[in-house]
Give the backbone structure.
Amino acid sequence: MQDIKIQLKDITKMFATDEMETHALRGIDLSIRAGDYVSIAGPSGCGKSTLLAILGLLDTPTSGQYLIEGKDVAGMSLAQSASIRNEKIGFVFQAFNLIDELSVYDNIALPLRYRNKTLSQSEIDARVAKWLDKVEMGHRARHRPSQLSGGQQQRVAIARALVGEPAILLVDEPTGNLDSTNGDIVMEMLAQLNREGTTLCMVTHDQRYADMATTKLHLMDGKMVRTQAEPEIAYSQVSQLGAYDRVEQVAA
């Protein structure tokens, strides 16, 4: 179907040494449609990070099919994977991964400068301005990441991930380096982006945040168990947080 952004079919991942074989993923089937908000939770060592790496084309499955908007990408070369990743996948990392030598503006613009299709400077300016406004960081465009709080850096990282208008946003423990207040604000921002149409797939160890997703996936020993969240109940857990600008109070 046209609205399926991501589809995994019988994905396995095995790591082998001379002494043993480790099966990190066992027969994973997953479809993520446009506008979905999916969380992946589970104990340490269950395969969450391996699954996210495969979804992000940072690793390849041992077997199975991986389709992005109907195109099989499981067997692509490193160069092909890098090109698809730049065009179709946005990443938000636990450690932010911003470049401190660059301004906030240039960090967000960076993915656009590596696109196969060259964008004009005016097109880049317009896209960066749009996402700076979305994450309410326009007033920090010329600052360096080291001049920002952790919550502000994560907001910049979200803008960088979405500036290329990817098919899906992959989010890896987005609150792992944040205090609880900034973590709540970043999670509310992600929820708002999803309500506006962004397709999200998130790995988190925090069950409270995992419950915000409309589809909750639980991994155990490389196998997937699927449960459905109640969106209105999950959202109510953080609805009292208020506007994004509370992060400024924390940073002060």
Remarks:
- The domain at 35-54+77-251 is CATH 3.40.50.300 (Rossmann fold).
- The beta strands are 4-16, 21-33, 37-41, 63-68, 71-72, 89-92, 168-172, 200-203, 215-220, 223-228.
- Residues 38 and 201 are 5 Å apart (CA to CA).
- Confidence is low (pLDDT under 50) at residues 229-252.
